[in-house]
């Protein structure tokens, strides 16, 4: 019979694997603890050894100074020496000799009657150790023992050591003073030689110094860019050149160093934001490559931070007109250094929007948008426009808009209009505001854990969990921002922008910011929430009726109103007849010269007023606008004429009965009143578009083509139809395509003909000979006779 069967359950293979894993973790932890304990012991032993060596060096007896004795003491000594030593016992003599060898015997208070070893007991009056040392000790050189490698011979190992004299602090100070003295003499000699040098020699010396500095900057920059992981410490050396003290080259060197560091950081900065390491990550052991990467990131962040602080301090010194004692740069050069610093910050703002301290750069540059110096403010405004245009996710735009809002409010709306005009470059046009519809719509419900257990089986819950995990991993691998997050950021940005605009409309209607506000409202009007429509329409109508606005500001108000009404406001039952009358009244007063940008706003307004709202516009109103636009097209530049004629074509397509204006017959009673500013009552149906016949002889070929096309009724098909380039483009696009800003025509205009008209030359004969004879006789009679009007008057009476 075999051995009894064990009742203990045999572990499964999975349990064995789990147990082995735990054991391996415990072994690893024990090994690490042992290594830490061994390291601690070694550090303690080394510390004790260093302390023992130090104590031994301190406790070595030093010879005392010899004092000159008094004559009475010398006589007593001679008397004692003359005494025979035979009278003293050997034990007493030996004890006195031993006591004399110890310094404590001399410093001990012999008048006290206490025992020699009484100091070991604790007493309330403990004498300090430094009180027992004599006041004057002999100055001996302290020596430091340096242990060298031992020598081995036949007898064994022989230790080797070397003594080195340790210099005291006073000696070091004396040496430093002595070392500084020749430098001072050299500086004085250099100054004296500089005073002796001629202007040409000083310029040659400056050029030589400048070349050396440039070569140094180039060598450091190339070394850093070639191997940034190993040479990140050289950034500090290059940054130290920002404190150049040589007055002859200080300004140029600092500018070169600023620009060089800016380009270096743009090249070596990673494409991610560096975060600080946690305590657990710092304590964990990592690979050599990972440790090198961490050191590089840490050095890069610290040097980048110091560089930004240097740039900001340069700008502050220029703004405060403050000069430091150590500065070797004059006040006149502060502005040049500040402009270079601002340019570097603008470049970093655009090149590293993802990197650390980007918000700090925004905070430093936004106040400079309102700077009195046009060059500085222009650089900052252009940089933020480019940032808005290239910012796809909206994070940097949101941070900038927040800072701009705070700046406008803190300065009580006394900022330059260019600050608000930069907001026109925000990329929020493609976002549709449907927040109210989304809130009112029923939201999709997701099952919680209890519902999952109730409605799904165990296998279905397992598959559901695996699918959710897989979807999460796919989103992380794709690394794409969700559309909801982007919409949320853009909505918050737009709310801040409208908050700035509405504050200015409410509190600062008389400020110079009103044109920029109205332009911004016209640009983002399609994104305004329905809740603000009524109040905004009332404010804009009161502004237009006040008469304080310019033509451009009034046009922006009208554009804002009709952009709202043609977008989300189409559900509102509003007839803005007053705004139609204002635009109709304003058309003859528009600028017809080079600055004809107002025509572009008019074309956008006409598209929203007539084409998109054709069901709410009467025929009389449309015909009145067509007639006035045709009159205006005779006075403006060719590109504006092309845009206005294209707008008339769109209106005639939207209102086919406008072809009455192409006929001479009168429709109805009355006659046309061109001076009346009400489009409904000017009787435009009783006139004709005679301006088109004049425009058919225009010098611009496109104007001639459009005039002929409109005279034929603006057909969409047939031989009189326009080509594809003209028919598919909107009036605003045609205005920009045929612009004459560069003083060139598009297409080129043909030169006038060289054929001259026949003219009468002096002395030519008339065709009728009798008439010619009478004319000659009359001319000769007038020349010979003397006219006397008094005589003639008397004869007649």
Task: Strand order, main sheet: write it out.
Answer: 1-2
Summarize the amount of helix as a percent range.
55-70%
Number of helices: 33
* Beta-strand fraction estimate: under 5%
In angstroms, what separates the terminal alpha carbons? 181 Å
The biggest beta sheet is recorded as: 2 strands, antiparallel
Shape designation = elongated
Give the number of DSSP strands: 2
pLDDT < 50 runs, ≥5 residues: 103-126, 178-194, 435-445, 792-797
Q: Return Rg in Å.
A: 49 Å
Mean pLDDT, as a whole number?
79
Question: Structural class, from secondary structure content?
Answer: mainly alpha
Overview of the structural elements:
This protein is mostly helical. It has 33 helices and two strands. The chain has helices spanning 13-59, 71-82, 90-101, 103-107, 129-132, 169-196, 199-226, 234-240, 250-268, 279-283, 288-320, 334-351, 358-365, 374-390, 395-410, 417-421, 435-440, 449-455, 458-478, 483-507, 514-523, 533-546, 551-566, 577-586, 598-611, 619-632, 638-654, 691-695, 701-711, 724-727, 731-737, 769-784, 789-796, and strands at 142-152, 157-166. A two-stranded antiparallel ribbon has the order 1-2. A hairpin with a 4-residue loop joins strand 1 (142-152) and strand 2. Helix 12 (334-351) packs across helix 13. It is elongated, with a radius of gyration of 49 Å. The N and C termini lie far apart (181 Å).
Topology (SSEs and partners):
Blueprint: H1 13-59, H2 71-82, H3 90-101, H4 103-107, H5 129-132, E1 142-152, E2 157-166, H6 169-196, H7 199-226, H8 234-240, H9 250-268, H10 279-283, H11 288-320, H12 334-351, H13 358-365, H14 374-390, H15 395-410, H16 417-421, H17 435-440, H18 449-455, H19 458-478, H20 483-507, H21 514-523, H22 533-546, H23 551-566, H24 577-586, H25 598-611, H26 619-632, H27 638-654, H28 691-695, H29 701-711, H30 724-727, H31 731-737, H32 769-784, H33 789-796
Antiparallel strand pairs: 1-2
Helix pairs in contact: 7-8, 7-9, 9-12, 11-12, 12-13, 12-14, 13-15, 15-20, 20-21, 21-23, 22-23, 23-24, 23-25, 25-27, 26-27, 27-29, 27-31
């Amino acid at each position: 019979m075999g051995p009894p069967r064990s009742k203990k359950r045999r572990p499964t293979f999975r349990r064995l694997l789990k147990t082995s894993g735990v054991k391996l973790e415990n072994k690893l932890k024990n090994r690490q603890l042992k290594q830490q304990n061994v390291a601690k012991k070694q550090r303690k032993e080394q510390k004790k050894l260093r302390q023992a060596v130090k104590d031994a060096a301190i406790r070595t007896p030093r010879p005392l100074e010899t004092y000159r004795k008094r004559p009475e003491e010398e006589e007593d000594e001679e008397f004692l020496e003359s005494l025979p030593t035979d009278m003293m016992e050997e034990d007493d003599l030996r004890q006195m000799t031993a006591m004399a060898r110890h310094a404590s015997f001399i410093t001990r208070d012999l008048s006290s009657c206490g025992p020699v070893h009484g100091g070991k007991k604790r007493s309330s009056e403990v004498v300090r150790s430094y009180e027992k040392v004599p006041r004057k000790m002999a100055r001996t050189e302290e020596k430091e023992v340096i242990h060298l490698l031992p020598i081995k011979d036949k007898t064994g190992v022989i230790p080797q050591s070397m003594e080195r004299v340790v210099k005291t602090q006073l000696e070091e100070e004396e040496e430093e003073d002595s070392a500084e003295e020749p430098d001072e003499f050299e500086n004085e000699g250099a100054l004296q030689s500089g005073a002796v040098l001629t202007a040409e020699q000083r310029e040659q010396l400056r050029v030589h110094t400048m070349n050396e500095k440039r070569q140094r900057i180039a060598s450091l920059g190339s070394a850093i860019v070639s191997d940034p992981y190993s040479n990140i410490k050289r950034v500090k050396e290059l940054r130290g050149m920002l404190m150049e003290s040589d007055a002859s080259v200080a300004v140029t060197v600092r500018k070169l160093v600023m620009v060089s560091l800016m380009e270096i950081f743009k090249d070596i900065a990673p494409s991610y934001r560096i975060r600080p390491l946690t305590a657990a990550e710092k304590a964990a052991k990592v690979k050599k490559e990972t440790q090198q990467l961490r050191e590089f990131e840490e050095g890069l962040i610290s040097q980048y931070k110091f560089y930004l602080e240097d740039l900001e301090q340069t700008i502050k010194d220029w703004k405060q007109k403050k000069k430091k004692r150590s500065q070797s740069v004059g006040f006149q050069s502060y502005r040049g250094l500040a402009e270079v610093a601002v340019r570097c910050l603008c470049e970093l703002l655009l090149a590293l929007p993802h990197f650390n301290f980007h918000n700090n750069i925004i905070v430093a540059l936004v106040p400079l948008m309102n700077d009195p110096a046009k060059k500085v403010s222009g650089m900052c405004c252009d940089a933020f426009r480019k940032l808005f245009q290239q910012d796809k996710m909206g994070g940097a735009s949101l941070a900038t808009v927040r800072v701009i809002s705070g700046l406008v409010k803190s300065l009580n709306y006394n900022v330059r209009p260019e600050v608000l005009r930069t907001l026109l470059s925000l990329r929020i046009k493609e976002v549709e505001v449907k927040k109210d519809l989304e809130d009112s719509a029923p939201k999709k419900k997701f099952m919680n854990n209890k519902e999952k257990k109730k409605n799904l089986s165990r296998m279905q819950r397992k598959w559901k969990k695996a699918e959710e995990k897989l979807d999460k991993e796919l989103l992380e691998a794709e690394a794409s921002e969700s559309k909801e997050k982007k919409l949320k950021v853009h909505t918050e940005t737009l709310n801040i922008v409208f908050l700035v605009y509405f504050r200015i409309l409410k509190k600062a209607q008389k400020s110079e910011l009103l044109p920029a506000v109205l332009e911004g409202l016209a640009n983002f009007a399609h994104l305004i929430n329905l809740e603000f429509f009524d109040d905004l329409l009332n404010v804009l109508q009161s502004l237009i009726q006040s008469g304080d606005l310019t033509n451009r500001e009034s046009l922006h108000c009208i554009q804002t109103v009709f952009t709202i009404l043609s977008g989300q406001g189409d559900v509102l039952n509003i007839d803005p007849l007053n705004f139609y009358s204002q635009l109709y009244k304003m058309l003859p007063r528009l600028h017809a010269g080079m600055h004809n940008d107002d025509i572009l706003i008019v074309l956008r307004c006409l598209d929203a007023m007539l084409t998109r709202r054709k069901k709410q516009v009467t025929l009389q109103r449309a015909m009145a606008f067509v007639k006035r636009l045709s009159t205006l097209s005779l006075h403006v530049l060719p590109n504006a004429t092309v845009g206005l004629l294209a707008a008339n074509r769109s209106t005639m397509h939207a209102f086919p009965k406008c072809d009455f204006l192409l006929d001479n017959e009168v429709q109805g009673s009355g006659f046309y009143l061109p001076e009346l500013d009400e489009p409904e009552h000017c009787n435009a149906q009783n006139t004709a578009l005679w301006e088109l016949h004049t425009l058919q002889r225009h010098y611009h070929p496109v104007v001639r083509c459009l005039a002929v096309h409109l005279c034929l009724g603006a057909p969409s098909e047939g031989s009189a139809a326009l080509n594809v380039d003209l028919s598919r483009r909107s009036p605003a696009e045609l205005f920009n395509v045929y612009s004459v800003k560069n003083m060139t025509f598009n297409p080129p205009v043909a030169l006038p003909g060289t054929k001259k008209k026949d003219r009468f030359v002096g002395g030519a004969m008339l065709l009728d000979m009798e008439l010619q004879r009478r004319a000659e006789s009359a001319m000769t009679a007038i020349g010979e006779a003397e006219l006397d009007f008094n005589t003639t008057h008397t004869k007649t009476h």
